[in-house]
Amino acid sequence: MKRRLALTGALLAAVSLLAACGSGGSSASSSATKVTGGTAVIGMSSQTSPNFFFPDLSMDANSVLNNQVDSLMYLPLIVFNGKSQYNYPMMIASGIQVNASGTVYTVKLNPKWHWSDGTPVTANDVVFTWNVIKAASGTASNLPWIFSGQGTAGIPDAWKSVVALNQHTVQVTLYKPRSSLEFIQEGLDLIFPVPEHVWNKYPNDMMKELAFIKSVSNSPNNAVYKVVDGPFNFQSYQANQYWDFVPNPKFDGQKATISKLVFQYFASDEAEYLALKSGQVNWGYLPISMWADR
User: Fold this and answer.
1) Helix or strand run (H / E) with residue 63
2) 3-state SS assignment for residue 248
3) Edge-to-edge, what's the strand order for the sheet holding 39-45?
4) Residues in the chain with pLDDT < 70?
5) Do the beta carbons of residue 73 and residue 54 sit within 8 Å?
6) Which of 27, 56, 61, 286 is deepest in the core (most CB within 10 A)?
7) What pLDDT, in 10s, does the model give residues 67-76?
8) Taking the model in full, what pTM does it have?
9) Are 266 and 45 in contact, with CB atoms under 8 Å apart?
10) 8 Å CB contact between 16 and 285
């Protein structure tokens, strides 16, 4: 679970830097001059194309990039910065209260957040997303969730209930006491709410709901992915070639100043290295075999 937290923070940090540097030139740095417009390019390996989309993450090797993609489009309930502090500007929750035994977590949602269609982000969205995760973690599901049964999160067996107390308050109750910090970092931070009013196609049949999610999991152009609360919207893609994202004009946080964010795939490490060296990509990776050339 900490891998997801770290990747989310790293990606958001990268996007912030890229938003400041615009297009072209060398790799982004914190001293880059902020510009408006331009395309920021992230170099990727051809083997890392997303292949399964939120709100259910597949249990395969490409789940790392799946995490990154949904982090662009959907805000997490909880996320931490590099100093292990709540990153309030990039998370839905505005505060958490924990009872003395560590079994009840009352989460307040920041009312400023809205979906891109103007609908408020509410506790019902959190509850619906949890219900999907719970169902996808069950033995009857043919859509296994990647974090099922792992670590402190105890999904789904340790979670007694997730209920909406009001429009902007969610209460999570556990069967047994847990370390509150660990549960927040490795349990609550796994919830990336989606708009219940868009995704909930079968309110009385979760198995049909999971089947629907699976049917659109490899179809990013489907209408359900158009309503987001994150900083970017999906625009277009070509499998193993590129993924394009554009800023979400309805984002309630600090908006990106770039006009497009591109995940560009390369056929080999050598090709990506040359593109990074020449400045064709703003952010990329350095293969271990070429570490001496850094």
Assistant:
1) helix 63-73
2) coil
3) 39-45, 260-266, 242-247, 232-238
4) 1-36, 46-66, 139-142, 144-152
5) yes
6) 56
7) 777 889 999 9
8) 0.84
9) yes
10) no
